[in-house]
């Protein structure tokens, strides 16, 4: 059973794609800020979108292994669209709202101490369209290369 899980390409390829996206995120932050911040290996948001990389690698793997006409591809493609829309749309809006709420919290802190306002909200939540496209493209390339090298399709 464990062997079947660790050799399941449709499971492993998206996970590797996610890990590559997170590593790229860490490297890009290191280049931009000249500071190693290991939190970028696990946090969401930023360039490239690891969620988009994961779901696009999933959909691409299923398409190449099972075919575009398969039910599994239909499900994975719809899932990918929903996740990428959410990453660029809903979560981006939440990040913008966090900026406004943090300003309000700063104003409240100046007037009186309130223990619930000890910490700022995370503003780095969503993705720009470019970050989602970059993550999605990364997932497609990782899946395609992996399966091409393995000779699976």
TrEMBL record:
Entry's transmembrane regions: 12-31, 71-88, 129-149
| Transmembrane found in the keyword field | yes
Q: Does the keyword Chloroplast apply?
A: no
- Any Pfam family the entry gives: DUF212
Q: Which UniProt keywords apply?
A: Membrane, Transmembrane, Transmembrane helix
What the entry lists under PANTHER family is as follows:
ACID PHOSPHATASE/VANADIUM-DEPENDENT HALOPEROXIDASE-RELATED PROTEIN, ACID PHOSPHATASE_VANADIUM-DEPENDENT HALOPEROXIDASE-RELATED PROTEIN
* Name of the molecule in the record: Divergent PAP2 family protein
